[in-house]
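Repro case for the chain-ordering regression, as requested:
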Amino acid sequence: QKEVEQDPGPLSVPEGAIVSLNCTYSNSAFQYFMWYRQYSRKGPELLMYTYSSGNKEDGRFTAQVDKSSKYISLFIRDSQPSDSATYLCAMSGGNYGQNFVFGPGTRLSVLP
Amino acid sequence: ETGVTQTPRHLVMGMTNKKSLKCEQHLGHNAMYWYKQSAKKPLELMFVYSLEERVENNSVPSRFSPECPNSSHLFLHLHTLQPEDSALYLCASSQAPSILAESTDTQYFGPGTRLTVL
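-- result from build under test --
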């Protein structure tokens, strides 16, 4: 079983749709959960991070963490064509790089 | 801009060349990382430096040699590479956790160097 699983997509949605991106993981030691957005030929850009379980909202983006189910989600409301990118989940035990793991990424296309 | 810069942005080299990738962070972080991103593969952690000491080396071939002269600069020296080493090489930095302050270990990435080995 891979440590972090994420549907690679591609996921295509119409503009204005609500997008749901998800990751599952197996290591219960993870405490910090992050979502990165990566445009083509660019480095990953941090979107949101969450500590432990709960929800966090930032504009059109909402991150959810359910540690009991080992499941994290990123919701994008009112999706825009500029949201088209690869979204990577990442998680960490908080020990600088040791035990810092990325999912493979989900490629999202928002169609105008 | 994330506060992490990488040069060069693109590099084409032959298998017998020696080249170096440079990373600089302006965020006051004390941990730096090299990642490799190949097509259709997850990010692969190559090296971790914390407080200028190498903390982790994920069994990377010796043809990749990192150097961290201070907390703001990180190099990746390349020699006798193979075509399968062609990839995007990403540098990242973070604030290593300490007993004095909780850290998210959140990493901030540079734009990457697109490397092609002929």
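Ordering looks correct now. Chain B has a mean pLDDT of 87.
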